[in-house]
Amino acid sequence: MHIHILGICGTFMGGLAILARELGMTVSGSDANVYPPMSDQLAAAGIDVREGYKPEHLEPAPDLVVMGNAMSRGNPAVEYVLNKGLPYVSGPQWLNEHVLQGKWVLAVSGTHGKTTTSSLLAWILEHADMAPGFLIGGVPDNFGETARLGKTPFFVIEADEYDTAFFDKRSKFVHYMPRTLIINNLEFDHADIFDDLAAIQKQFHHLVRTVPEQGLILSPQEKAIEHVFNMGCWTPRQTLGADGDWQATLLKNDGSEFEVRHGEATGRVVWDMLGQHNVSNALAAIAAAHHVGVTLEHACEALSVFAGVKRRLELKGEINNIRVYDDFAHHPTAIATTIAGLRAKVGNRRLIAVLEPRSNTMKMGVHQETLAQSLIQADRVLLLQDADLKWSLKQVTETLGDHVSVFDSVDAIVKTISNEAQSGDEILVMSNGGFGGIHQRILEAIA
């Protein structure tokens, strides 16, 4: 079977391509931007990737076209598929039909922490010799790839609430049929497709409806999540957090050492990850792994050798005692927790936060009232005012004062850092995009 994937270089669709190749299918694809790391993974898997959305990429006609959710009417390739009557399907539906049938799916959902928690869960199962399959929206360093079929019925998936396709406006996660479900947290996001938090909660209610009575749902006791359960829940639940069925107690303020308790059982984790948010992610992963038979002791042991996830507080380099990190944070809550985690680790070292507010929700100005507060623990803040941003970042400077500067180009940010950086600085770069290759440029500038 030959499938052609439109939008193949996104982490989700690229992961689908790798899974399809493992199934023995012939796979090709198109994307507007062919770039690493996904382009490297696809090339290594022998997948033909073509730049742009040209109709000729679909000649001769594949057996099936798999549509990424970034595809829309007016796209030349989409119009060609419709005009020619080629069979097509969304990525999540393809996954449901070709990969997830008969699997014990462990799904990780929520506004924040999905990629890290999914990576932690997959690694715990791997460390327990359970050889899981997985599809994750990032690259866990313990695996070096975003997706694989695995050798057992267990399959870990990052369950995103974003819509499925231009022809299917349900959230992607309704296609996944989880038996074990984590809901990490729930806030308003994706303002380009959801009107308010209630609209998101309705989609999470649809997800809850798909979990069997013999399954398990894990979540903290948060008001927004409880509202979802009040709409109807037919599955046993276990709670996460201070007064929950699963508890984590910090043994070090930076989150690098903590104790886990579940009933009479306790375990201790000493690892390289930072921050209270990652401790919460770990707790959810431990609880989900326990549902499929991994002991608390084995889970804690696995986390002690967890290598991290690319673009999640990833150290990109250290020059002249100046460290440069890359993080995917793009929502005020994620920004605040990432900065807080690094601050707890580095103490009084100067922390320089560099942010590109790039998500659709951020561009629309939904978070303009809360962004400043999320940056408050940084000693110096540099912001990129992109032309697509529909509001002025100057109001952040008005709130936080002179240590915040706004720039209209990556070049200007790099130049400022090269002039200001000094030994002992921690430079945290945050964006959900490539940010013009700024990480390497900063390292070169301070060398």
Automatic annotation (TrEMBL):
Tell me one Pfam family matched here.
Mur_ligase_M
Q: What SUPFAM superfamilies would the database entry show?
A: MurCD N-terminal domain, MurD-like peptide ligases, catalytic domain, MurD-like peptide ligases, peptide-binding domain
Q: Which UniProt keywords apply?
A: ATP-binding, Cell cycle, Cell division, Cell shape, Cell wall biogenesis/degradation, Ligase, Magnesium, Nucleotide-binding, Peptidoglycan synthesis
Q: Give the residues annotated as coiled coil.
A: none
Reactions performed catalytically? UDP-N-acetyl-alpha-D-muramate + L-alanyl-gamma-D-glutamyl-meso-2,6-diaminopimelate + ATP = UDP-N-acetyl-alpha-D-muramoyl-L-alanyl-gamma-D-glutamyl-meso-2,6-diaminopimelate + ADP + phosphate + H(+)
Task: List the EC numbers from the record.
Answer: 6.3.2.45
| GO MF entries | ATP binding; UDP-N-acetylmuramate-L-alanyl-gamma-D-glutamyl-meso-2,6-diaminoheptanedioate ligase activity
GO biological process terms, alphabetically, are:
cell division; cell wall organization; peptidoglycan biosynthetic process; peptidoglycan turnover; regulation of cell shape
Q: Indicate the segments forming the Mur ligase central domain, all copies.
A: 108-289
Q: Which residues bind ATP?
A: 110-116
Q: In which pathway does it act?
A: Cell wall biogenesis; peptidoglycan recycling
Ranges where the Mur ligase C-terminal domain occurs: 311-433
Q: What class of enzyme is it?
A: ligase
Q: What InterPro entries does the record tag this protein with?
A: Mpl, Mur-like_cat_sf, Mur_ligase_C, Mur_ligase_C_dom_sf, Mur_ligase_cen, Mur_ligase_N, MurCDEF_pg_biosynth
- Identify the residues that the record assigns to the Mur ligase N-terminal catalytic domain, covering every copy: 2-99
Which cofactor is recorded for it? Answer: Mg(2+)
UniProt family annotation: Belongs to the MurCDEF family. Mpl subfamily.
Function comment: Reutilizes the intact tripeptide L-alanyl-gamma-D-glutamyl-meso-diaminopimelate by linking it to UDP-N-acetylmuramate.
Q: Name it.
A: UDP-N-acetylmuramate--L-alanyl-gamma-D-glutamyl-meso-2,6-diaminoheptandioate ligase
Give the species this sequence originates from: Methylophaga aminisulfidivorans MP
